[in-house]
Write a structure and sequence with these properties.
- Helices cover 35% and strands 18% of the residues.
- Helix 6 links the parallel strand 7 and strand 8.
- The longest helix has 15 residues.
- The protein is an alpha/beta fold and 223 residues long.
């Protein structure tokens, strides 16, 4: 199980040092949420901020675009240093064109799905994707409760394409990471449970241990 702490839960007044701290504490990826205030009712940061903190770590930047027109801004996020770009199937951009643009730019392409969107919406694009991000909360704000019924979606995706890397985002802590691991999730985005823990390193280690204990015997999820 990979753990990708979400900087949405960090102290934005010292974003660079927060990313350095979490990288040193065992984070596998750094998860960065770009929101435009239209696709979701919140506004965070764009490519310039990501470019500014790229020098703070060599960990992969896992960029989740919660914006209406991701295709339009893919070049900006690629230039900023994104290693993985997730965009929403519910956005206004053509999924195939957006995937192609991400891959041409040298990043790994992923599609994100809101809780109300069925797994089947992503099926036509699975062979061209590095990962699918299943939202386990309504996108836009941190600190929400984990939606366990989204694990049916994870299982459906992995049944359709065995070995698919699936990420979940929202409400991740020790109890829910076990649920995710049992369903075959390979990457968990963790916000408040890591960034606001007294010991972030211990929190990440505990999540990984819980996931390892809960994963089905012999299960190998690509990373």
């Amino acid at each position: 199980m990979l753990i990708a702490p979400s900087v949405l839960a960090s102290d934005f007044s010292k974003l660079g040092s927060e990313i350095e701290r979490i990288s040193a504490c065992g984070a596998d990826w750094i998860h960065l949420d770009g929101m435009d205030g239209r696709f979701v009712p919140n506004l965070t940061f764009g490519a310039p901020v990501i470019a500014a903190v790229r020098k703070c770590t060599d960990k992969p930047f896992d960029v989740h675009l919660m914006i209406e027109e991701p295709l339009r801004y893919v070049p900006d996020f690629l230039k900023a240093g994104a290693d993985i770009i997730s965009f929403h199937i519910e956005s206004k951009s053509d999924p195939a064109e957006t995937i192609a643009a991400i891959r041409r730019g040298g990043a790994k392409a992923a599609i994100a799905v809101k809780p109300g969107t069925p797994a089947e919406a992503v099926f036509p694009y699975l062979e061209d994707l590095y990962m699918v991000l299943v939202m386990t909360v309504e996108p836009g704000f941190g600190g929400q409760s984990f939606m366990e019924d989204m694990m049916d979606k994870v299982r459906a995706l992995r049944a359709r394409r065995p070995g698919l890397l699936v990420q979940v985002d929202g409400g991740i802590q020790e109890k829910t990471v076990r649920v995710a691991a049992r369903a075959g999730v390979g990457v968990c985005v963790a916000g408040t449970s890591v960034f606001r823990a007294k010991d972030a390193g211990a929190a990440i280690a505990a999540l990984k241990k819980a996931a390892e204990e809960a994963a089905p015997e012999g299960e190998e999820t690509p990373c």
